[in-house]
Description:
GO molecular function: oxidoreductase activity
Domain FAD dependent oxidoreductase: 3-343
CATH class of the largest domain: Alpha Beta
Protein name: NAD(P)/FAD-dependent oxidoreductase
Enzyme class: oxidoreductase
Pfam family, one: DAO
Radius of gyration: 21 Å
Bound molecules: flavin-adenine dinucleotide
Distance between the termini: 30 Å
Amino acid sequence: MKKIAIIGAGIVGSTVAYYLSKSDMTVTIFDEGHGQATKAAAGIICPWFSRRRHKAWYRLARSGADFYQELLSDLKNDGIATDFYDQSGALLLKSRPEYLEELRELAESRLVESPLIGSLSVQTLAEAQKSFPDLAGFDKGILASGAARVEGSQLTETLIEASGFSLLKEKAELKRLSDGTYDVNGQVFDSVLLACGAWLPDILEPLGYQVDVSPQKGQLRDYYFDDLETGHNPVIIPEGEIDVIPFAGGKVSVGASHEKNMGFDLTVNERILADFEVRAQDFFPKITEAIKTRDRVGIRAYTEDFCPFIGEVPGLKGVYAVSGLGSSGLTTGPLLGKMLSQLVMGQQTALSASDYLISRYIKK
Ligand SMILES: Cc1cc2nc3c(=O)[nH]c(=O)nc-3n(C[C@H](O)[C@H](O)[C@H](O)COP(=O)(O)OP(=O)(O)OC[C@H]3O[C@@H](n4cnc5c(N)ncnc54)[C@H](O)[C@@H]3O)c2cc1C
């Protein structure tokens, strides 16, 4: 029986653990956890309005959004609740009507390959208020009914628990042994899966690798309303950096920042979060009545061309890595986790891994 170590239990590591639990492999998961991007994420799954021209990236993003349906069905078949995911829709706001029309045309051209988008409709403020009464400050928006929001930490906890594998909350170090196996914190493994997010360079650089992965800080704030049912309100995506993300039970998140050159700094920047709140008031004035419950800070992983990668680490047989998921990793992460499980089990991957070649980003 093959012994596998998974290092990192964010969205990638927890998904690969869940799918490997359906094999006969023995798996141990290591997760240090501080600054994990998945726990801090806003959780918006809505890739179809992206104007990025990187075709392989877009294929991954739209297929990643679709893949949630397979993951949900697999979990439901195992008798596991999936209320971490809800297709409550997304309302995109633009300052000019022609920008809205361009967006609608773009998403409509993608409907055939991505029916998950659902219905697309341009809504007036009065129409939008029927599903989200407290909205204000815009004339029209475009609603995509199939967009979803995900509770990242609830999803990873669900997957790890469903896997039944043990999770060691410790920082892992990787060493290659002379017989071709690997030592991780004193235990020996046949294969090691690096799902370390922005921390991938830390684990590979001591082994002589250069890794094109850089950290980017992101923070957002969670609010709570005791008099508002927010469960099925759409996510609001205005122009600029902030989004307003309603979750079930009166919880609303506002964020998130994209802060470069901050390294792995996890301190909350009150000025940035207060500024987000002021900007959110334009569209959702009631935010001033909410109780601030929690600030979340996480570190995203970026590659130079903003595309994730997946594959066997060149020169380290049996060691596989996924990283570089950037700001859309809750969208692409589950599919990449599934693909990682397929690579380790010697199966064909859902998308061609050669479109996300690891050797472009990791060099000896
Ligand atoms: C504020 C914010 C908002 C976001 N919003 C969205 C969104 O709306 N939609 C979307 O699609 N994406 C969003 N993202 C992006 C998404 O969250 C990430 O791309 C994704 O979660 C990355 O997942 P991951 O598994 O690769 O890494 P992570 O979730 O960062 O997990 C990596 C884990 O590995 C652990 N680790 C690393 N090295 C070691 C080691 N040596 N030993 C032990 N453990 C180790 C870390 O501690 C961490 O727990 C957002 C991100 C942030 C920060």
